[in-house]
Design a protein that fits this description.
Helices cover 33% and strands 30% of the residues. With 324 residues, the chain is α/β, with parallel strands linked by helices. The strands form three sheets. It has a six-stranded mixed β-sheet with strand order 6-7-8-3-9-10, with helices on both faces. The protein has a four-stranded antiparallel β-sheet with strand order 2-1-4-5. Helix 3 crosses helix 4.
Length: 324
């Protein structure tokens, strides 16, 4: 039965999966709201694919629960699966079928009415760039086109939720860009959960990231937060004076007194008469406006002022190695 009070498109509650003595997924809980595009990350063996299989009802959890649009996957799997489009890492395609016949077959499996199936098939084929290969056997297609066919079968029944497991695995750079563009378009109207090892792809397409390691949830936050530092902002500043040499201690003290600034350290300058500093700000503080005002009031020339971003790769490595 649907939970009409639920705002989440996906909700897991203490989701847990064991294979004998091996714990693959360790009591993870999270919600994904309608319209979110979420990157689901973790090292090999972390439990990502196992989790996605439990989200889709393909795999039964040892304990815990999954709800899709308020529908319990355990209690009513068919109703939940009607709302899900799933592209596994190795898309289940029939090489001896033509693309158009395979998509018609999927439409029949999804009980799409015959009166609307043709129009729906054409629409999805156009969106996925398949119109020029509809008459070809799937076995003749490149890996990029096979992924497009897999994405088309996941979208054919117009699901509310699309789950993509390594959708760009094995593709060349041009194909990756094409599939990424499709995913971005998909995210404008659907809830998307994307699992991939290509971290720039996550930064380019996802507004939020969930990271698991050893079956445990280790991070769940906005992409911007995970790439601007877990403990605050890092600001790089280079200044010079209009009126002769600068006093390093004085300038450092001025910056250190700004609201939200926790520490000020020297870093490389840009030659004679310039000073470079790294400012570390607490929490969500962004002292850049205060830095600019301080420079103006003390007659400094700002040669550089920017907030450094932490690479998602660094954040991922740190979190999955158990570091703070």
């Amino acid at each position: 039965m649907a939970d009409t009070a639920s705002e989440a498109m996906v909700e897991t509650k203490a989701l847990h999966k064991e294979y004998g003595a091996t714990v693959a997924v360790n009591s993870i809980s999270f919600k994904v709201s309608r319209g979110e595009v979420v990157g689901f990350l973790g090292p090999n063996g972390a439990g990502k694919t196992t989790t996605m299989k439990m989200l889709t009802g393909f795999l039964k959890p040892t304990r815990g629960s999954v709800f899709v649009g308020g529908v319990s996957v355990a209690d009513d799997p068919i109703a939940a699966q009607r709302r899900i489009g799933y592209l596994p890492e190795n898309a289940p395609l029939y090489d001896d079928m033509m693309v158009v016949d395979f998509l018609r077959f999927v439409a029949d499996l999804r009980s799409i009415p015959a009166a609307t199936a043709t129009g729906r098939l054409k629409n999805i084929a156009e969106r996925c760039g398949l119109m020029n290969v509809l008459g070809k056997d799937i076995g003749q297609l490149s890996k990029g086109y096979r992924q497009r066919v897999g994405l088309a079968q996941a979208m054919l029944h117009d699901p509310d939720l699309v789950i993509l497991d390594e959708p760009t695995s094995g593709l060349d750079p041009n194909q990756i860009v094409e599939i990424r563009s499709l995913i971005k378009d998909l995210g404008k109207e659907k809830t998307v959960i994307l699992s991939t090892h290509i971290l720039p792809e996550v930064q380019a397409t996802c507004s939020r990231i969930i990271i698991i390691s050893d079956g445990k949830l280790v991070a769940d936050d906005k992409t911007d937060t995970l790439t601007t530092g877990q403990t605050g902002s890092v600001i790089k500043v280079i200044v010079k004076s209009k009126n002769g040499p600068l006093d390093e201690g004085k300038v450092k003290g001025i910056f250190n007194d700004l609201p939200g600034v926790q520490a000020v350290d020297r870093h490389d300058s840009e030659g004679t008469g310039t000073l470079g500093f790294t400012l570390r700000a607490s929490g969500a503080s962004d002292p850049r406006e205060a830095i600019f005002s301080a420079a103006v009031s003390h007659n400094f020339v700002l040669l550089d002022l920017h907030r450094e971003r932490v690479s998602l790769e660094d954040t991922f490595r740190r979190l999955t190695r158990g570091e703070n």
